[in-house]
């Protein structure tokens, strides 16, 4: 589109919700709503340290990444069987389809489950079956990214990769998540090199709480094709220039940053500045069951707080498609749908 049709401000929330988008930073374990945690706990006879759904929800007051991770891993303890993984992913994909997410690249943390004795096959097969069923029944495209836990050793990551290799065709890449500070990218240099040799896509969380140097090292030592979060790049002008020049996608998660106190206030979130400086930024929900909103809530609340406009909405949706690991042929119909939605909103103005 040569120019973006003007859309009045009051129509922006509806436009943000209606526009097709890809979600590229989403931890499936972070979509477990308290109600589903309690239902699975009952089904699997797992005891939870919370008396009720309400008591669990009230514990969602985080001060930093670690305070969240402690509760997130406790919530995941109810997942035991393939059907549990299926039910969790199905619930997310239904929710995402309602948000007009046309494609999702979904992280899963196998070590969180295999450490408790759950079989790798149960995890991957449950998630994969949900993705395929949702594609057929809901028309939403999706793919899985195996994410290594960085607070564990590289040896453990290698063992996890080995265990997942019989299921190699069921995931498209690997990522790196969990406690960032003190667990720099170089700790995983060898296992990521092996993953690249295997033809897997490579992404990594970097610059959420960690310094700009972790973003550089994720690119240079791990070969990351996208940076998850990356918001700390704002502190380093030379890195900002590099990220813009090399068109490195950043999968930014505004409500996550707010809830984990990475930013004090959405109005001061760096995303508009990153976008203005030409970085390939996208908007995502990270762990929506814990951070108070799915992807459309992230868009609407960010735009409300920062006075961003329809031109920026267009750019963010285009970025989400361009940053995804799909073929140009898969992307083309989404771009057409995006154009159609913007034209409809401009005409109605
Ligand atoms: N950062 C690091 N690890 C995670 C996150 C995150 O935002 N969500 C789930 N695991
Ligand atoms: Zn994340």
Topology readout:
Layout: H1 12-18, E1 21-27, H2 34-44, H3 53-58, H4 65-76, H5 82-98, E2 101-108, H6 110-114, H7 120-138, E3 141-149, H8 154-164, E4 173-177, H9 189-197, E5 201-206, H10 212-220, E6 226-229, H11 237-245, E7 249-252, H12 254-259, H13 271-276, E8 280-283, H14 288-291, H15 295-306, H16 310-322, H17 328-347
Parallel strand pairs: 1-2, 2-3, 3-4, 4-5, 5-6, 6-7, 7-8
The site of zinc ion has 6 residues, from β1.
Main traits of this protein?
349 residues; alpha/beta; 17 helices; binds hypoxanthine; binds zinc ion
Task: Summarize the structure in words.
This protein is α/β, with parallel strands linked by helices and 349 residues long. It has a single domain (9-347), classed as Alpha-Beta Barrel (TIM Barrel), CATH 3.20.20.140. The chain contains 17 helices and eight strands. The protein has helices at 12-18, 34-44, 53-58, 65-76, 82-98, 110-114, 120-138, 154-164, 189-197, 212-220, 237-245, 254-259, 271-276, 288-291, 295-306, 310-322, 328-347; strands spanning 21-27, 101-108, 141-149, 173-177, 201-206, 226-229, 249-252, 280-283. Strands 1-2-3-4-5-6-7-8 form an eight-stranded parallel sheet. β5 (201-206), α10 and β6 form a beta-alpha-beta unit. α1 (12-18) runs antiparallel to α15 (295-306), α5 packs parallel to α7 (120-138) and α16 (310-322) packs antiparallel against α17 (328-347). The radius of gyration is 19 Å and the shape is globular. The model has no long low-confidence stretch (mean pLDDT 97). It binds hypoxanthine and zinc ion. Zinc ion (ZN) is lined by residues 25, 27, 177, 205, 228, 286.
